[in-house]
Amino acid sequence: MIIPDGHRPSVKGDEFVAFLSSDSYFNTGFDFYEFIAVYQSKFKYNKINKKFIRPSDNFTEMLKEADTLDEKKIIKEEIKIEKEINDHVTDLVEETVR
Question: Which tens digits make up the pLDDT trace of 54-78?
Answer without folding.
Answer: 877 788 899 999 999 999 999 999 9
